[in-house]
Description:
Blueprint: E1 2-8, E2 15-19, H1 26-30, E3 39-44, E4 49-54, H2 60-76, E5 82-85, H3 94-100, H4 138-147, E6 154-161, E7 164-174, E8 179-190, E9 204-210, E10 213-222, H5 240-243, H6 248-254
Parallel strand pairs: 4-5
Antiparallel strand pairs: 1-2, 1-3, 3-4, 6-7, 6-10, 7-8, 9-10
Amino acid sequence: MQIFEIIPLEEYPYxxxxxTSDKGTVKEVIFAEENEEKAYLLVDHNxxxxxxxxxxxxxxxxxxxxxxxxxxxxxxxxxxxxxFHLNELSIENKRFQEILDMEIKPGRAKPLxxxxxxxxxxxxxxxxxxxxxxxxxxxxxxxxxEGLPLPDEFKRKFIIVGNKIYTEKKEPKSFILEERSxxxxxxxxxxxxxxxxxxxxxYSTRLSIKARKIQGIELFVNEEGExxxxxxxxxxxxxxxxxxxxxxxxxxxxxxxxxxIPQQKADTNPKSK
Length: 273
């Protein structure tokens, strides 16, 4: 297995790759604590596969660069290789474990340099790289998102597919010896005008793309992290008579029904008739 590290650059093409000189297994490189912020390309020449891998603390930019670099490395290898994403597999997955145990060896893939990329152009055809279509199959997209491994120490709260937002609902499943439950997506509402998370500290997001189509956005919360308390600015009404604290018993007395209701006097004024 050949391993290349994604190197960000300040100028076009903004990225390069560097073959790791480390020896040992794939696990010893990509799971090393000092490499948690890095992204890699793993090249399996026996199966003709290119695997992208992003460390748990890697930046959003590096994750994007990893996907771009994989496509250009595939061109270098004359398109005989297919690209897969290791982060889509659970760490307990058999294939994942096989890759982790593979020995790092040299191969015929070469590091990507500036000459491997096309000349810079001001006209970029975004549609050729990413296709956002309204005919996305919602059921298949949900099945795809449900099959992705959940990140450690996070709980999925919402799933957004198209303009619909779902939450996870626990459904009980009967077993002979024990009771279990399965979480299934349940439609909450439609997002007709989108949403914003500017400065939000509660939600972490994951954007999933398959076959150049955005499948959905998942919103996660930390299972153990404390949610920062809301700051309630009071009073909303700035009149002193409304803002002053009073005894709650006065309010309770105001709503009590009196034992005796006074009789209304008859109107004796003839002009009022």
